[in-house]
Write a structure and sequence with these properties.
heterodimer, A: alpha+beta, 5-stranded mixed sheet, two-stranded antiparallel ribbon, 7 strands, about 65% helix, about 10% strand, rod-shaped, B: 9 strands
Chain lengths: ~400, ~200
């Protein structure tokens, strides 16, 4: 509280106490005014004269008049005492008022000093938190500093700390994925050249053998076909390396989230024979700024994994939009067997898979996470147990998005 | 000190009595009697109080020392007269509290008779039996109190009643009312102090 506010508060308190005092002493003042009014004395005196006269005219009721007379006399006596004590009452009233004001001043000063001390302590604590923030700590907990400006600063420090933690994690993930992408690009390049040469030389070799020994034509053709199948599989792997290495930047458009999920569920209803897709109702007005095709690829990868995890059994994938205070979430849940524990820790690393060798390279989730990171968000495993797995696609809030997440497109 | 008093007496600087001053007389029973100046009772605020219906108290304290150094009483002597006007009967009721612890009640018919009473050597101050000193210095203090303690208490209660809050014991305003009600305290409407020479 600054000095100006303190003075204003003090003035208000004094004014309030004066008003309260005025209100309290109003009946007292009214009573004294009546007592001191000369007309009051005159009226009562006349009334006494009338009663005395009546008692003479009506001697039978003399006692009644006397009682009334004495009642009036009692009142006159009280008024006379009040009149005589007027200065004392006024002095006492002034003393009470001064006492109240002194009490207000002392209590105001005490409250002011207490608040100053409290604010000083809070500022000291905030300075410590800011120093920790500047030193790069990302686990800052300020605690409750109330709803005032210090409380808001404290919450902003916590928020900044949280954003820093997320950005650091994203950066680390992106650096890691970047290294993997570079390795994949080099592998693809290194494999593709000898692969092409091998295919050409296989054709030359088959032609040469058949020319020299036409009787081996059928046998050579069979062997050539077998070798070409192996080379095709190698080519497919190379293409997967290439697609991982060449994930493009998102081309952002505004998309109605619920509508997008509903269309996905409709379009891909027959894509997996053992999966039933369902988009649950959500906030109709919620929009996301995303690359629709890339996010769809993430959804396809997740559904593909669910289908494979079900191993031919029938299952269900539920898609939902969850609005959150600090961003938006698309949640993908299945009712499969969940993620094996040994895979969980390295789930999003490239080449991590629970499938047999030759049945997949384990790049789907790595690609999906890379896409989400490129959106300024993330892909996380929210829950996994025997009743199924739930993945969450986290999209940043517009504020956080504007504050530093780089988008391509 | 005594020499100084003697000097002052001789030089006539001390009051020796007059129309606006009390006078003293020792009667045949050696009782020192006091007369108050008529002017005192004619003062408007005193006259008004006397006819107000409240109990007006005349409180007199006498310190008397002879020029030879004898005291009538070391602590002084007290006399008190309570006057209450009864407006229905139009009479004054007097209660005299005397030095010998005797109580005397009188009824006086009108204001003039009351003035005559106070100025007529009727107030017994002290006995002078056993004192042969001729020259005395009297210091008389007079206070006229406008109402009695019981009337003060009654008015305080009435005042608190009229504020309408003292019936509720939990009322926080009761403190304020009490503070204001107890500010009703009797203080003298007039006070006098005389130093007088008296010669038997």
């Amino acid at each position: 509280m600054n000095l100006k506010a303190a003075v204003a508060t003090l003035v208000l308190m004094i004014a309030a106490s004066l008003l309260a005092f005025q209100f309290l002493q109003r009946p007292i003042g009214r009573l004294i005014n009546v007592a001191l009014d000369p007309d009051t004395e005159k009226i009562l005196s006349n009334y006494q004269d009338d009663l005395r006269l009546l008692s003479r005219l009506d001697p039978e009721n003399r006692e009644r008049y006397r009682k009334q007379f004495e009642g009036v006399q009692e009142r006159i006596k009280y008024y006379t005492v009040l009149e005589l004590s007027r200065d004392q009452i006024r002095n006492r009233t002034q003393n009470v008022l001064l006492g109240m004001l002194a009490l207000i001043l002392v209590s105001s000063a005490a409250v002011y000093l207490w608040q100053q001390g409290r604010v000083r302590r809070q500022l000291k604590a905030l300075r410590g938190h800011l120093e920790a923030l500047a030193a790069g700590r990302t686990d800052i907990r300020v605690g409750n500093l109330g709803g005032g400006i210090l409380g808001r600063i404290g919450r902003m420090i916590e928020l900044t700390s949280g954003v820093m933690a997320r950005q650091r994690k994203r950066l680390a993930s992106m650096e890691s994925l970047g290294a993997w992408q570079e390795a994949a690009r080099r592998h693809a390049h290194e494999i593709r050249t000898p692969l092409t040469a091998a295919r050409m030389e296989l054709n030359q070799l088959a032609g040469y053998v058949v020319k020299r020994a036409p009787q081996l034509d059928e046998r050579v053709s069979h062997l050539k076909h077998s070798i070409e199948e192996e080379l095709d599989q190698l080519k497919e792997f190379t293409q997967q390396f290439t697609s991982f290495a060449r994930i493009g930047k998102p081309k952002l458009t505004v998309v109605e989230a619920s509508l997008m999920l509903a269309r996905f569920a409709e379009l891909f209803a027959d894509a997996w024979s053992n999966l039933e897709l369902a988009a649950t109702g959500g906030n109709e007005d919620l929009t996301l700024v995303i690359d629709k095709d890339m996010v769809r690829q993430v959804l396809v990868n997740l559904c593909n994994n669910s289908s494979l995890a079900l191993a031919g059994e029938q299952g269900r994938v539920t898609l939902a939009v969850l609005p959150e205070a600090d961003g938006h979430i698309i949640q993908v849940s299945d009712n499969g067997p969940g993620i094996p524990e040994e895979v969980g820790a390295r789930l999003f690393e490239p080449y991590t898979t629970s499938r047999k060798i030759g049945e997949g390279m384990g790049l789907g989730l790595a690609i999906s996470r890379k896409i989400m990171l490129d959106h300024g968000g993330d892909l996380v495993l929210h829950k996994s147990d025997s009743e199924g797995a739930t993945f969450r696609l986290l999209f940043p809030s517009e504020e956080e998005d504007d504050s530093g997440t780089h988008h391509g497109g | 000190m005594r020499a100084l008093v003697r000097l002052l007496l001789l030089s006539g600087l001390l009051a020796i009595g007059g129309e606006n001053e009390p006078s003293f007389m020792v009667n045949a029973e050696h009782t020192l009697m006091l007369s108050l100046p008529r002017e005192l009772l004619d003062r408007p605020k005193v006259a008004k109080m006397l006819q107000s219906g409240l109990t007006t108290t005349f409180l007199m304290t006498l310190r008397a020392r002879s020029t030879s150094g004898n005291y009538l009483s070391e602590k002084g002597t007290l006399a008190r007269v309570d006057v209450r006007y009864e407006p229905w009967d139009e009479v004054f009721y007097l209660t005299l509290f005397q030095f010998n612890h005797q109580l005397e009640k009188l009824t006086i018919a009108n204001f003039d008779a009351l003035v005559d009473f106070f100025s007529g050597d009727k107030i017994k101050l002290s006995t002078m039996a056993g004192f042969n000193d001729l020259h005395w210095i009297f210091q008389l203090e007079l206070k006229v109190l406008p109402f009695s303690e019981s009337e003060q208490a009654q008015t305080q209660n009435w005042f608190a009643d009229k504020l309408g809050r003292n019936t509720n014991k939990q009322d926080p305003n009761k403190v304020l009312d009490l503070m204001l009600a107890t500010s009703i305290k009797r203080s003298p409407v007039t006070s006098e102090f005389w130093r007088l020479e008296y010669e038997r």
